[in-house]
Amino acid sequence: MPELPEVESTARSLRPRLVGRRVRSVGGVDWPRMLPNTAEDELRAVLTGLAVSTVDRRGKYLLIGLEHDRWLAIHRKMSGNLLLRPAETAAEPHTHLEIGLDDGWLLRFVDARKFGRVYLFGSRGELDAFIAARLGPEPLTDLSAASLTTLLRGRHGRIKSLLLDQAFLAGVGNVYADEALWEARVHPLRAADSLSSREIARLALAIQHVLMLGIERRGTSFSTYRDADDSRGENQDHLSVYGREGQPCPRCGTRIRRIAIGMRAAHFCPHCQRASVRRPATSGTASRSGTARPGLA
DNA sequence: CCACGATCCTGCTAGC
DNA sequence: TGCTAGCAGGATCGTG
To answer: With pLDDT > 90 as the criterion, what percentage of chain A qualifies?
Structure first.
């Protein structure tokens, strides 16, 4: 999916186009499960006639605030896109929601894989409770070596898996986790609480750095990700390890390796990112440390 | 509380 | 060329 930089880019491009616009119509819902806490009828009844007051982001959620303290929280998950289109434009395949605006444009939610979700909240308080229940701190504003040290304390799991846990830290996904670990020279299988203070400091900075670069480049676009105006980002042309298995590490030239961690792929440089310590073996025998499993493909 | 595997969906592609 | 197994940027839930 879109990770923090992609959602931030979308929020920035939508903000000037949405704020001040009034909702004229709501429709096109063909997949009820995408509205976990509401339904098309309620969405229409609540939103129609309201003007958009804010467009923001928290973690990977896009937040749209409207008059009367109504809020939409949109998560695109793996394949969702938010597109702004003239109302007369034919709906693209996999359109699951259309919000018509008073300037003749439509905000469309298009999502081939149907993992994306749209939530409706009746107050900022409800939204905040929802967010608080599932998201950790914002990496760009609330992360430092000190706070990361505290967060990692007592966490025995793999650092890569922890970075993907949104309750631990909001907004980092598979691409930026791999990129940050590479920049910080930390092996993805390292036990989170085994990092030295020096490594923690590097990692905190690296997370912020790769996310900021991602935003500057308006996101990483692979096959499906598009911005609201259908444009692609350019960060995919600047990745150091993600998706670069077998290609040289930009820092030392060693071939990038790809392994499986849980059900996700992890890319790293075996020279720059040393495995060293691994977690204490779980009960069984199964996985050994260092020499990781064969990898996915 | 914590760590981890299974699961939800469809499209694309590598490999046979 | 045609089929299909496997993989995709996410997060939740159940289990141990």
So the answer is: 86
Domains in chain A: how many in total?
A: 2
Of A89, A104, A132, the residue at which a domain comes to its end is A132
Residues A77 and A17 in one domain: yes
Q: Which CATH number characterizes residue A9's domain?
A: 3.20.190.10
Check if the beta carbon of residue A173 is closer than 8 Å to that of residue A60. yes
Whether any strand C atom is under 7 angstroms from the Cβ of A265: the reply reads yes
Our measurement of CA A38 to C1' C13, in angstroms, reads 21
Confidence of residue A295 (pLDDT cuts 50, 70, 90): very low
Same domain, A260 and A144: yes
pLDDT, tens only, A219-243: 998 866 677 777 889 998 899 999 9
Structure token pair of residue A186: 């930390």
Is residue A143 domain-shared with residue A122, that is, in the same domain? no
Nucleotides of B under 7 A from a protein CB: 2-15
Q: Residues near chain B (nucleic strand), Cβ < 7 A?
A: A 33, 78, 93-94, 112-115, 154-158, 161-162, 192, 223, 262-263, 279, 282, 297
Q: Cα–Cα–Cα angle for A23, A24, A28, nearest 5°? A: 95
In contact, A73 and A37? CB cutoff 8 Å: no
Is pLDDT above 60 for A43?
Answer: yes
CA of A247 and C1' of C8: distance in angstroms? 20
| Within-domain flag for A274 | no
Per-residue pLDDT, A225:
67
Residues A114 and A176 in one domain: no
Domain carrying residue A230: 139-268
Distances (CA, A) of A165 to A21, A143, A151, A267: 35, 15, 12, 18
**A197-216 and A145-152 helices cross at what angle (nearest 10)?**
120
